[in-house]
């Protein structure tokens, strides 16, 4: 059996799983310190369904610690950004367009050095080891403890990033006192788009020390419960990473919250390709699962004011939720909402504001509060409001789907009482039962993956071969991440020809995913 | 009247340029960042109207040539933008007095701001197209016999060249090869012309128009007015169609992002044919008979349904709710010589050019 834990901003959910069966599930408020919350969750699981530490084969954890640290600009390591590419790129140095308070929170320093590649892999300029050593000494002298290295076109060739990392480490080691330095390399973190990839790498670098503390905390919490099994953390795409990986790539946890919720909804409903409609208090968030994984954004995403190209789940939010205000004239819902004041302001709770929840109660879809307080509502009006909600949600789901093929819809969240059993365009809405702990169930899904994103010059006669080679790279990356080799599949493939480039230069993105080899 | 372009105007200008880019021209983010950086370092740029230009002024165009996708990795530098201008000045024996935009779509609307700021030169409120096109010779000055060459080009390494060619199509062919060899993103400077020639050949008030479009969209959104209506009004065009993107096909044609997109509306399907820019918009009736609504050289602009945010051809995706707007191009693009250069036939489509309002441009036999 294994344990899934989702540490959210408000709640910590935990489940004990046997395969895909939920043996026990608990919910708590999140504690400021990691260890206490985890220990309590595991103890409560044990109280619900007894197990010994030795029976647990893995603990999977989804956490918002890292993104919160960035948003709050807390506990970030003094970080240097080193970019290889001179003489190119110097007019737009690292950290350009960052919010100034965050730059200060990182005590950030930036360095430009020679190196980098052209789009086709030719070098822009050779690496200058003396230049790099001088930069590294300056970093050490300024108390830098973590370094982000980026190089122009490193997704095409990353040799220079590797070489620069070796030089920086060596120089730190031979500096006064022989300091340790954490090095993050951009080709391991982001995709094409230098500034966005570099930004993600700098964020990663700034979180490295915190990652060490968090992993140590989580591990000791599990060990204190007699669990010797490996600890895994959820990544943005829903796959898992092991402890060592988290220490090196904490940034990969950033969007695990919505991802775990969507994947959990899928598992509890038994669907792997579906639209997930999560109706909360203020908004309805709609995402798409394809083969069990959230479809991700194609473009740039701003995190804490920093432009990045993380692979984040593509979520569309519309202003409809249980607390949404309802207009008596137009029967229109939201975007205004009473939010957390629902339990005092809604009519059914004795308040004076007509909310979407009141409509659901009036329609007999939910038994919340005092139904007599909405008995005066005109049934035709109530129906109009519900129809409008169904129509808008359907339209939003339709906007998210990638083809006209029919797709099942899974409705979750406290506000999902607003949705009818049949949605226009889509038919039946599935409503899984275990939703209260779906986040933790999402975290507990034991899969690992590998992803490649690079520009390849494809000769027309060798297209198949070229694509196969990139796919193989992704498969090997998944296996290296801990997947059982025979279980690895390519789950995502995208090929985009690049305009104005000769030789059929094509950007290829491949993701391979397999089942985690447990007890390895 | 001369006016000043500060960092505040650059965001609006970049959004407006994405509208006039008609789907092409690349992500304006890097260009806008570079322009902001240059203005922050060197101070605001003075924009001057064509009417203020002395007859003996020396106007040059500055642009990026290559793949916008490369530019997001190998970020351009201000040096690289200034070097071809200096080289051209040396070749011509006198320095340029004014910078102009060759096109007013995508990154090439913001690169000249960076150039003007870094060089300390005024920027003309004018451009060579009034929109975006994929090739260097596709500017109105070509129709006036103004030579693209001598054309100076530079990469970030300090390699600089000056081309002297027999016509503007040769400039495109040779410069394109050089650009690829130099890493597929170079800065070019050419089309040297007098103030009198600039007044005659360029499209006037382009920067104002761009900023007006960008701020118009933003203001319409905050003022709860339909931003697409606002764009239609500003472009003096018409809305062709509203619907949902139901299909996007991209062909692997060397060097160009060629393809078609289908938008499904209440009354049928609209097909967009694009090659970097949107070139043809047509609708099909139930029998499958196609009616062309508008073609290049007039502007076909795809906007996000509610926000009015321009959608690039690379950004088209299934499920997007969009509205398609057609608007007039500069009337000079409808002469027979101009249509031979930028009409549907040049891009391989065997249809007559149709203006934004559906009229076929009469081409004398």
From TrEMBL, chain A:
GO MF terms, alphabetically ordered: hydrolase activity
Which InterPro entries does this one have? ATPase_NBD, Hydant_A_N, Hydantoinase_A, Oxoprolinase-like
Native source species = Nakamurella endophytica
Stated name of the protein? Hydantoinase
- Name any one Pfam family assigned in the record: Hydant_A_N
Every Hydantoinase A/oxoprolinase domain range:
197-397
Q: Where is the Hydantoinase/oxoprolinase N-terminal domain?
A: 2-171
Automatic annotation (TrEMBL), chain B:
| Domain S-Me-THD-like C-terminal span(s) in chain numbering | 167-353
Which domain of life does the protein's organism represent?
Answer: Bacteria
Which is an annotated Pfam family here?
A: S-Me-THD_C
GO MF: hydrolase activity
Domain S-Me-THD N-terminal span(s) in chain numbering = 9-164
Q: What is this protein called?
A: DUF917 domain-containing protein
């Amino acid at each position: 059996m294994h344990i899934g834990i989702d540490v959210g901003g408000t709640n910590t959910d935990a489940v004990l799983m046997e395969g895909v069966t939920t043996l026990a599930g608990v919910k708590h408020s999140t504690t400021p310190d990691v260890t206490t919350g985890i220990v309590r969750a595991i103890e409560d699981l044990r109280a619900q369904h007894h197990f010994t530490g030795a029976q647990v084969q893995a603990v999977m954890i989804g956490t918002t610690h890292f993104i919160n640290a960035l948003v709050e600009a807390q506990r970030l390591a003094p970080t240097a950004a080193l970019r290889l590419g001179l003489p190119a790129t110097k007019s737009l140095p690292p950290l350009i367009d960052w919010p100034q308070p965050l730059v200060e929170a990182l005590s950030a320093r930036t360095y430009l050095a020679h190196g980098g590649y052209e789009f086709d892999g030719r070098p822009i300029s050779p690496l200058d080891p003396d230049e790099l050593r001088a930069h590294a000494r300056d970093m050490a002298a300024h108390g830098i403890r973590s370094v982000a290295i980026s190089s122009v076109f490193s997704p095409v060739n990353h040799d220079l990033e590797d070489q620069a990392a070796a030089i920086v480490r060596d120089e730190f080691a031979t500096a006064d006192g022989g300091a340790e330095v954490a090095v993050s390399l951009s080709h391991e973190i982001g995709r094409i788009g230098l500034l966005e990839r570099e930004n993600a790498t700098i964020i990663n670098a700034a979180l490295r020390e915190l990652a060490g503390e968090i992993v140590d905390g989580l591990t000791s919490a599990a060990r204190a419960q007699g669990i010797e099994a490996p600890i895994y953390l959820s990544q943005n795409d829903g796959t898992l990473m092991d402890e060592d990986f988290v220490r090196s790539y904490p940034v990969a946890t950033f969007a695990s919250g919505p991802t775990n919720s969507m994947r959990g909804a899928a598992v509890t409903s038994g669907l792997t390709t579906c639209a997930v409609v999560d109706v909360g208090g203020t908004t309805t968030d709609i995402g798409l699962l394809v083969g069990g994984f959230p479809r991700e954004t194609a473009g740039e995403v701003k995190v804490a004011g920093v432009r990045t190209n993380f692979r984040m789940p593509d979520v569309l939010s519309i202003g409809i939720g249980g607390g949404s205000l309802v207009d008596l004239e137009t029967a229109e819902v939201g975007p205004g909402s009473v939010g957390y004041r629902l339990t005092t302001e809604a009519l059914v709770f004795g308040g004076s504001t007509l909310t979407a929840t009141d409509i659901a109660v009036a329609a007999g879809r939910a038994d919340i509060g005092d139904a007599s307080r909405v008995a005066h509502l005109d049934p035709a009006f109530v129906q109009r409001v519900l129809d409008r909600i169904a129509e808008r949600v359907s339209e939003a789901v339709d906007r998210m789907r990638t083809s006209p093929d029919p797709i099942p819809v899974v409705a979750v969240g406290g506000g999902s009482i607003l949705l009818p059993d049949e949605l226009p365009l889509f038919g039946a809405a599935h409503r899984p039962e275990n939703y209260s702990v779906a986040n933790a169930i999402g975290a507990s899904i034991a899969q690992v993956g590998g992803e490649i994103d690079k520009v390849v010059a494809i000769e027309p006669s060798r297209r198949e071969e070229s694509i196969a080679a990139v796919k193989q790279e992704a498969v090997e990356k998944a296996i290296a991440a801990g997947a059982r080799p025979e279980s690895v599949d390519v789950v995502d493939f995208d090929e985009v020809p690049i305009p104005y480039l000769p030789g059929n230069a094509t950007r290829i993105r491949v993701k391979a995913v397999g089942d985690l080899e447990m007890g390895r | 009247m001369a006016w000043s372009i500060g960092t505040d105007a650059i965001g609006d200008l970049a959004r407006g340029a994405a509208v006039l880019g008609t789907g092409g021209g690349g992500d304006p983010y890097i260009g806008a960042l570079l322009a902001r950086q240059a203005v922050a370092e060197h101070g605001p740029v003075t924009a001057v109207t064509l009417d203020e230009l002395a007859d003996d002024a020396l106007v040059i165009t500055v642009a990026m040539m290559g793949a916008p996708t490369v530019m997001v990795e190998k970020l351009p530098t201000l040096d690289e933008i200034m070097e071809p201008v200096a080289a051209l000045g040396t070749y011509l024996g006198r320095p340029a007095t004014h910078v102009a935009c060759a096109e007013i779509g995508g990154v090439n609307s913001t690169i000249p701001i960076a150039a003007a700021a870094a060089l300390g030169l005024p920027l003309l409120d004018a451009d060579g197209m009034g929109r975006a096109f994929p090739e260097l010779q596709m500017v109105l000055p070509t129709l006036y016999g103004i030579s693209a060459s001598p054309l100076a080009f530079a990469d970030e390494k300090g390699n600089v060249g000056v081309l002297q060619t027999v016509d503007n199509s040769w400039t495109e062919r040779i410069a394109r090869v050089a650009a690829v060899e130099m890493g597929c993103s170079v800065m070019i400077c050419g089309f040297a012309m007098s103030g009198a020639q600039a007044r005659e050949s360029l499209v006037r008030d382009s920067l104002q128009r761009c900023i007006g479009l960008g701020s118009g969209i933003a203001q319409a959104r905050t003022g709860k007015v339909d931003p697409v209506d606002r764009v239609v009004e500003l472009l003096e065009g018409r809305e062709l169609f509203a619907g949902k993107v139901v299909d996007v096909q991209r062909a692997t044609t060397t060097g160009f992002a060629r393809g078609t997109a289908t938008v499904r509306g209440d009354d049928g399907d609209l097909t967009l044919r694009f090659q970097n820019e949107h070139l043809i918009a047509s609708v099909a009736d139930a029998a499958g008979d196609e009616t062309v609504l508008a073609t290049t050289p007039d502007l076909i602009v795809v906007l996000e349904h509610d926000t009015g945010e321009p959608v690039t051809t690379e950004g088209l995706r299934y499920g997007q709710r969009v509205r398609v707007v057609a608007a007039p191009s500069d009337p000079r693009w409808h002469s027979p010589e101009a249509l031979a250069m930028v009409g549907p036939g040049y891009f391989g489509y065997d249809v007559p050019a149709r203006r934004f309002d559906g009229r076929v441009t009469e081409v004398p036999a």
